[in-house]
Design goal:
The protein is α/β, with parallel strands linked by helices. The protein has 12 helices and 6 strands. Strand 2, helix 2 and strand 3 form a beta-alpha-beta unit.
């Protein structure tokens, strides 16, 4: 089995997928900037390339190979790789891969800190500027759908947090379950509800908060015109579902063999513990339940495999919205 850290094979040829608009690679082409809404994203141009795919599809290894061919540095598009000390469960690029190609936006904050898409966009903009000062191309590598969409479409201005409203919604979830809040979200913002898992309480609360404060659905937060560079320079890894599930199951077993439980214990014992964002990464909540004696090791592995397969399914659903994607076999 291979995962994102395994040695990459020679770059494969693009593969056709029905009902998706594919374009052949034609090299860097000068592109006009998007003029859509009040985006807060990096200054994308023809020196920017993008590689994504579902978890365990081999992005990290192929990203290093592609970056070396392009003369690029890698900007991580992974909402969990930003956390210091969470290495095993996030399958971060290896030390060897980081030596081969400079990587940005890894190990940015402690696991106790929240980290938003708006902050990631600002950090990504700084990383892009840093690469350009050295005359390097930029390769975005990762599979966090929200980050990818914000990068492509930009973000509209969103209302700030309302602590009282958040406490109220959290209390309702504690009393009746997050699924009930998800049902309410589906009534006011069905598009956002379709993208957010019924157990993802943090994102459900944020979506309801935005709708109640602004009177507009969170799903309207993206600018209407995607950046045109995505129409030409966006690669997505693809592989059959059975093969992907086998890779995921093998990766999760390795995570537990290689120390995710010990990694979770260290994070929980550190000041602030595992914050509400970091704990969402598949494997860490399960490892915490294992440490607390609520489940055994076999159940922790099974649940993590199930959550990771669900994540991969959501990632593929989002990736298919990128109409110009060039799909290549993993």
């Amino acid at each position: 089995m291979t995962d994102d850290r395994t040695q990459a094979q020679p770059l494969p040829e693009p593969v056709d997928r029905p009902a998706t608009n594919r374009r052949a690679v034609t090299g860097a082409t000068t592109l006009a900037r998007s003029t859509g809404g009040p985006a807060r994203r990096p200054d994308l141009a023809a020196d920017c390339w993008f590689l994504s795919g579902p978890t365990a599809s081999g992005k990290s290894a192929l990203g290093v190979r592609l970056a070396r061919e392009l003369g690029a540095e890698i900007v991580s598009v992974d909402s969990m790789a930003v956390y210091r000390g969470l290495d095993v469960g996030t399958a971060k690029p290896t030390a060897e891969q980081r030596r081969a190609v400079p990587h940005h936006l890894l190990d940015v904050v402690s696991p106790a800190e929240p980290y938003s898409v708006a902050r990631w966009l600002a950090d990504a903009a700084a990383a892009v500027a840093d690469c350009r000062r050295r005359g390097r191309q930029i390769l975005f590598v990762g599979g966090t759908p929200l980050y990818l969409r914000a990068l492509r479409d930009g973000l509209a201005e969103l209302p700030g947090e309302d602590a009282d409203l958040r406490r109220q919604l959290a209390a309702e979830a504690a009393a009746h379950g997050s699924a009930q809040l998800h049902v309410r979200l589906a009534a006011v913002d069905p598009v956002a509800a379709a993208r957010i898992h019924p157990h993802d309480l943090k994102r459900i609360i944020r979506a309801l908060e935005v709708e109640q404060i602004s009177g507009r659905p969170l799903s309207h937060a993206f600018a209407p015109e995607p950046h045109p560079v995505f129409e030409r320079q966006f690669f997505a890894l693809d592989l059959p579902r059975a093969a992907l599930h086998e890779r995921i199951d093998s990766r999760v077993e390795r995570m537990f063999a290689e120390g995710i439980v010990e990694e979770t214990r260290a994070a929980l014992d550190a000041p602030g513990g595992l914050g509400p964002t970091a704990v969402q990464a598949a494997g860490y909540a399960e490892a915490a339940d294992l440490l607390a004696g609520r489940i055994d090791r076999a159940e922790a592995i099974r649940r993590t495999q199930q959550r990771t397969r669900q994540l991969a399914k959501r990632q593929l659903t989002w990736l298919r919205s990128f109409q110009g994607a060039i799909w290549i076999p993993a």
